[in-house]
Amino acid sequence: MNRNHFYPYAALIIGVLSVSASAIFVKLSSSPAPVTAFYRMFLSVLILMPLFLLKSIKEIKLLTKKDWLFTILAGVLLAVHFILWFESLQYTSVASSVVLVTLQPLFAFIGTYFFFKEKLSAGGILSSILTIIGSMIISWGDLKVSGEALFGDMLALAACLMVTAYLLFGQEVRKRHNLTLYSGLVYGISAATLLIYCLLFSYPLVPAERTDWFYFVLLAVFPNLLGHSLFNWALKWISTNTISVAILFEPVGAVILACIFLQEIITLTQIIGGSIIMTGILWFLLGNRPNKQRETAQEASLID
Description:
The chain is mainly alpha-helical. It contains 14 helices and no strands.
């Protein structure tokens, strides 16, 4: 393989592995979900701050009132997404939670129909039905395990809805402004929202264990900054479709890591339901769709 082609694909593999580890770091942390989410975003802001001040601080004045409104809403929704998703991992398995959150592209597809009046394609509808069937199989299997596991599944689906809303509000701002400016502002607003949430509900901001600091840093560096930055860098050489399909392997990586580091056991319903969901999303991503649907759905797969 040509060296110029090797590096982008190597970056893609590292990026997928980085985001796959997100759920593992959350599970290994002993701190409450909102506290873990706060430090993930706060440390990301600190790491990103020098680049933000150097390259993007002057561009803030170019933001319109609408840009500010959508950016603030995006930051708040991202914070709620992390609270719900991290909380889901306290009740259900990594396999169920990560697979259900991977439904983001389908929720984005539905969102563009309601908010942008995009037409629904036959392929999109059928793939949506397929993923719903897969979700029901996973939820049915988790209900047989315990009511708590099913509650965790519902939290994961709610988290998926929140991140889709985050993308719908943020996509227009991202089109007009650079990634560093948008990320710095959204991460900062998200961190502030999480801090307020922790203070309102009396969550201790001191980590439950000293080792949690290690996991907080890993969450900030790998899934947030390294994983997503590598995806955006690779876009210069690799198509968005290729990256979107590659990110479908995130649940596979997360499940393997959960088996190794958390000794989680994968159930038959998770394998069957997860396979059906992945098939539905793959079918959806490879299908022909209008540009706005494609952009929104593909951006949705670059989050966790």
